[in-house]
Specification:
This protein is an alpha/beta fold and 492 residues long. It has 16 helices and 20 strands. The strands form 5 sheets. Strands 8-7-16-17-18-15-19 form a 7-stranded mixed beta sheet. Strands 10-2-1-14-20 form a 5-stranded parallel beta sheet, with helices on one face.
């Protein structure tokens, strides 16, 4: 039976393992950590459960279809519910807005809240949908690095309507042209952070990201975000995929321009195909040290990272929901600090995720588990201890001002994750959450392909390669790899 080695048990690595298994391959997943899931991990501390990584779940069909590949009923193994409220937004002047998932309700409430004509909002949302419909099959579901991708009728149709994609303008400029109210501009600008970019540099095509929330919906998995990776891990085990934890890969073995195996800290493995779910930068620098690396791709600007405080809070806040944003009063200066100055802004935008709103057992009764995150630069050797101390002070002051509380007195336990920790735990270069940033119009085309042009039988999946970061795109990267590889002659 043909054998595949998958390097890394992140969400894309597990999905790739499942897809290869379905095609009849023997699959072994090699993971340096002691657990599956990569960034999709969790921690329990002092009676609280915290999801450590991604907190937004959209496009659940990309998860459920993996169960359906093996004729499993997804609901028997993985359950989730749709949110009626996308996010609660807060500004320093006391303005608050609850973003409703129903499109027409969102348009009506936003028009009233921001004194913006409803037709402006409706037109903007419809244009976002058209962008997605034009480009999804090209940019998200196929390899951009294969000629046949560009020979389809749908691709030609998209190219002929390139003007609607707004690739020659920034997301902020598109939003400023669409709305008069700066708060509504800021609300839609924040979607650039979904791929770790700046709305003042990221191209206008990124305005299609809100479409994923409004048309596909936002969801919460029963048991928390960690259940996404755990349920797929259990499915993979059930299908005979082998997982070797605490086994760091040291090198990909190359013979006659073909990947033939890997060397780990324990032994050498021989295989017919190799898939790296590791960040593309360390994949080349550490696992392929003697091979020619794509210098321009590896030199791309890294996406933002994050500084996250996990707090147990001994109070419940009815004004907060699963997703909450407390905006900076100087959004442009905040992104300039992150990407230009490589530091934290003193008035950060704060994201609070509270899974105990949906999963009460994640916190003791009457308490909440707060995932408090600010966007951060990557790890460039800054004094993170000093930055964390300053950020904590600024976050607490902002929370106190906007929520009219003394949050320090309510914190019962604390865990902190910074860019250095993210880099160390997940091998993400500089702690970047999404690989390369999308701070120019060519970023999508410059992402590393899902296969090696110079080394046969070597493939790549995960957030640092095409089509990008985030749970849905990572799952799509595994799907693209699947399309590139033939079935085995002998099925499992």
């Amino acid at each position: 039976m043909a054998k595949v080695l998958v390097i890394g048990a992140g969400i894309a690595g597990i999905a790739s393992a499942l897809r290869f298994r379905k095609k009849g391959y023997e699959v072994i997943v090699l993971e340096a950590n002691s657990y599956p899931g990569g960034k999709l991990h969790a921690k329990e501390q002092d009676g609280y459960r915290f999801d450590l990584g991604p907190s937004l779940f959209t496009m659940p069909h990309l998860v459920t279809e993996l169960f359906e590949l093996f004729n499993k009923q997804p609901k028997d193994h993985f359950q989730f519910k749709q949110k009626t409220n996308i996010c609660n937004y807060f500004w320093e002047d006391g303005h608050r807005f609850n973003a409703i998932s129903n499109k027409q309700d969102f348009i009506n409430t936003a028009a009233k809240s921001f004194n913006e004509p409803a037709e402006h909002i409706s037109k903007y949302i419809e244009r976002n949908k058209r962008k997605y419909d034009l480009t999804a099959s090209l940019f998200l579901e196929k390899s951009l690095h294969k000629l046949e991708t560009y020979l389809s009728r749908q691709t030609i149709h998209a190219i002929l309507q390139i003007g609607i994609l707004d690739v020659n303008s920034t997301l902020n400029k598109i939003n400023e042209r669409s709305f008069k109210n700066p708060k509504l501009v800021q609300l839609f600008n924040r979607y650039a952070t979904y791929n770790g970019s700046s709305p003042y540099q990221s191209p206008g095509i990124m305005s299609m990201i809100p479409h994923l929330e409004m048309d596909f919906g936002t969801f919460f998995p029963k048991g928390g975000m960690h259940q996404i990776s755990l349920s797929l891990y259990k499915l993979a085990l059930d299908q005979g995929v082998q997982f070797n934890f605490n086994e760091k890969v040291e090198r990909i073995i190359i013979e006659n321009n073909s990947a033939t195996g890997v060397k780990t800290i324990k032994k050498n493995y021989i295989a017919d195909k190799i898939v790296s779910n590791m960040d593309i930068y360390p994949t080349y620098k550490q696992l392929l040290p003697n091979e020619k690396s794509p210098k321009k791709t590896l030199a791309q600007e890294r996406s933002s990272s994050a500084l996250i405080f996990y707090w147990g809070i001994e109070k419940e806040f009815p004004e907060l929901d699963l997703h909450n944003i407390l905006f900076s009063a100087s959004y442009e200066k905040e992104f300039s600090a992150i990407f230009r100055d490589k530091t934290l802004f003193n008035d950060p935008t704060i994201y609070i995720n509270i899974t105990s709103k949906e999963n009460p057992t994640d916190a003791p009764k009457g308490h909440e588990n707060w995932f408090v995150m600010v966007n951060a630069p990557g790890n460039y050797g800054q004094d993170w201890e000093a930055l964390k101390k300053r950020a904590r002070k600024n976050i607490i002051l902002k929370l106190n001002r906007i929520l009219k509380i003394d949050i320090e007195k309510l914190i019962t336990t604390e865990h902190v994750l910074d860019p250095m920790g993210i880099e160390s735990n997940t091998s993400s270069y500089r702690g970047a959450l999404y690989g390369a940033a999308s701070n120019n119009k060519y970023a999508a085309f410059l992402r590393h392909p899902n296969f090696s042009r110079s080394i046969k039988n070597l493939y790549f999946c995960g957030g640092s390669v095409h089509p990008g970061g985030g749970i849905p795109l990572c799952l799509l990267s595994a799907k693209i790899v699947d399309d590139l590889v033939p079935e085995t002659i002998t099925h499992a």
